[in-house]
Specification:
The protein is α/β, with parallel strands linked by helices and about 650 residues long. The protein is globular and about 80 Å long.
Length: about 650
């Protein structure tokens, strides 16, 4: 697109100044910010930042939850030709130091006291961090740190400057070019230090528009912005596409109120990783297990109709009159109220990405009338590479290449992408840039996959993670892990087996789902560690593992990857402990090193192993969790041969 983010803002403000641009829930009441008011706020913020010394080409960190003034600060920085760098608001202080130093950051926006404290903590490591502007003043009244200033003070200074220099803001915006750097996003760092992914206004807006055109998005859409702004998925859906389409972005009051806010807003366009959809379905199934017998009978009966009829209707297949009547009755009694309870009664398009989604989970949402689809992309591709057209939706593929995208599959099975949305570079890392970008413009995704007969892309695993067992059988850990996580009782799984004789897994239970199951079975427990090691819970896990083995036995390529042994970890894998990234991806190398004692026990044939693990709490303190973990064998099955 031949434009920039600030120019799009000013266009909306000129064409429809009174229309809603954003809403924020504060003290239980939704407050609306119009396009005209937002443009005024950005104008004054930009002038204030100019007075403070922010210059073209500089980076500015923004850290906090989705808030109108966070987005306005990003737009203000871009108006001056500066580059916003969103960081994860749940990252610990030490994680903020690398991106601040790597990007030579002098200016930062912090949402509240928590974020200010983190930035102040790393200031000794980042001496160039001169100014921190905070939005919410609660708890900060007596802070006297140099360079710490309320955003309101910055806005007032900018308003005064703007009154005296009315042409200055527009002159700065007009200097901007689509090929200027628009934003930088740091990768999750699964294998080392995060890398700064540099994107221009053109790359981000081109892919945002391509995605919007694909699903005919317009200004009437309603979106709930509840995922971290530092994740490019959230940034594309509630920032880039927001400015492309001009729809309304709604910011929840807090993470705790997202479910309630979702119901109140009733978004028409919704995006969430599979983990969110899994959590919503788990809560539904828990409530149904506690419901009366007649409600359970009605729910399961109509869900059988939905799976048979609803999926066919979603696929555009012909459906008989009697089936339509049954589905209509189910919609009145079950599906409609369920969609409303989930906050998805108005959803026209819903997407999931980031991880594979289970076929049963996928089918559930589509069966009850939610147009849930999958897409494929990454931070480096500005998200949109492949998307699923309506009536061509399959749980085991990620759709077709969208406008402007070319895809090739290399001789090794790696997916290569050429697109107008590719990253400009990894910041200050030419070696890493050269590794992923070829001289003729292809991006090496690192994913292994292939096209099916219908031209839809199918992802197997990360190419580097696909290995071989000692007997030469293919080992795709992510594929196995995703199958395990399809069960509501399993929250996380880590499969091990590359160059080994057998596959073993480390499991995390879903504490809410297993806790509810334990209560219904009159099984007392004293907390996560106690519940995880109950023999009855191991029996539940064994049943899930063996169902996965039965599925694997039917897969010619992966029949040898069946799980022979497993254990349930005594603690949840946690980003604060370095076991997961901030986007909840497993850090395999770190886990293999940290739990080497358990892996040795699994492969040595032991039946139990004592372990003591250091953990970090949210307040920064350290502690330890210890337990004697049981190790259990699982039944495996003979490969199922396809009929000749």
């Amino acid at each position: 697109m031949e434009t920039t983010f600030p120019r799009l803002l000013l266009r909306h403000a000129a064409q429809r100044p009174a229309d809603a641009a954003m809403r924020e829930k504060e003290y239980g009441i939704w407050q609306t910010l119009s396009w005209g008011d937002l443009a005024g706020l950005v104008r004054h913020l930009a002038c204030g930042l100019h007075l403070a010394g922010l210059r073209r080409g500089e980076h500015m960190v923004v850290v906090g939850a989705n808030r109108p003034r966070l987005y306005a600060t990003m737009l203000a920085a871009q108006s001056l030709g500066a580059i916003p760098v969103p960081l994860y608001q749940d990252a610990v202080a030490a994680e903020c130091a690398f991106p601040i130093n790597n990007a030579d950051v002098r200016f930062a926006f912090a949402e509240d006291q928590e974020q200010v404290d983190k930035l102040l903590e790393v200031r000794t490591q980042c001496p160039q961090l001169a100014a921190i502007f905070f939005d919410n003043p609660r708890g900060l009244r007596h802070y006297r740190e140099p360079g710490l200033q309320a955003l309101d003070t910055l806005i007032e200074a900018g308003r005064t400057f703007d009154a005296k220099n009315p042409d200055a803001f527009r002159a700065e915006v007009d200097k901007g070019h689509p090929d200027d750097v628009g934003a930088m996003f740091f990768t999750s760092g699964t294998t080392g230090s995060p890398k700064g992914v540099v994107h221009t206004h053109r790359t981000l807006l081109d892919r945002a528009k391509a995605g919007a055109d694909f699903d005919k998005l317009g200004p009437r859409e309603e979106v709930l912005a509840y995922l971290p702004p530092a994740w490019i998925g959230q940034n594309i859906f509630s920032y880039a596409q927001w400015l492309c389409c001009g729809y309304v972005v709604n910011c929840p009051e807090s993470a705790a109120t997202v479910t309630i806010d979702l119901k109140e807003i009733g978004p028409t366009y919704y995006f969430a990783p599979p983990r969110i959809f899994e959590g919503l379905l788990t809560s539904v199934m828990i409530r149904m297990e506690d419901a009366s017998a007649i409600k359970r009978w009605m729910f399961h009966g109509f869900m059988n109709v939905a799976r048979r009829v609803g999926l066919a209707m979603r696929a555009g297949k012909p459906v008989g009159v009697l089936d339509r009547l049954q589905y209509g009755l189910g919609n009145l009694l079950v599906y409609g109220p369920l969609r409303n309870n989930l906050g998805m009664s108005r959803v026209r398009v819903a997407y999931t990405a980031g991880e594979a989604i289970g076929p049963d989970l996928f089918a559930f949402y589509r069966a009850i009338g939610i147009n849930l689809k999958q897409l494929y992309g990454s931070t480096e591709t500005a998200v949109f590479v492949c998307m699923q057209p309506d009536h061509q939706v399959h749980s085991d593929t990620v759709g077709v290449p969208i406008d402007g995208v070319e895809i090739e599959v290399s001789d090794t099975g790696e997916i290569l992408v050429r697109s107008p949305g590719l990253l400009k570079e990894y910041y200050k890392n030419p070696a890493a840039t050269a590794e992923v970008r070829t001289s003729d413009g292809w991006y090496r995704t690192g994913d292994a996959g292939f096209f099916d007969a219908q031209g839809h892309l199918k992802i197997i695993d990360r190419a580097k993670d696909v290995g071989r067992l000692a007997d030469g059988s293919m080992f795709a850990p992510k594929y196995i892990e995703n199958k395990l996580k399809f069960f509501p009782y399993i929250k996380e799984a880590v499969a091990v087996g590359d160059r080994r004789d057998i596959v073993c897994v480390l499991l995390n239970i879903d504490f809410e789902a297993v806790g509810n199951w334990a209560e219904r079975h009159n099984l007392p427990y004293a907390g996560y560690t106690d519940l995880a090691q109950k023999p009855e819970v191991y029996g539940l896990m064994k049943d899930c593992v063996e169902k996965v083995n039965a599925d694997l036995a039917a897969d010619e390529k992966l029949a040898g990857s069946q799980i022979h042994r497993f254990l349930v970890l005594h603690k949840e894998l946690d980003a604060d402990d370095g076991e997961l990234t901030r986007t909840n991806k497993v850090r395999r190398g770190f886990i293999a090193e940290r739990y080497q004692l358990l892996l040795t026990a699994l492969y040595a044939g032991k039946t139990e192993q004592y372990i003591d693990t250091v953990v970090k709490y949210e307040d920064g303190r350290s502690g330890s969790v210890s337990a004697t973990l049981k190790i259990m064998d699982a039944n495996t099955y003979a490969p199922v041969r396809a009929a000749a």
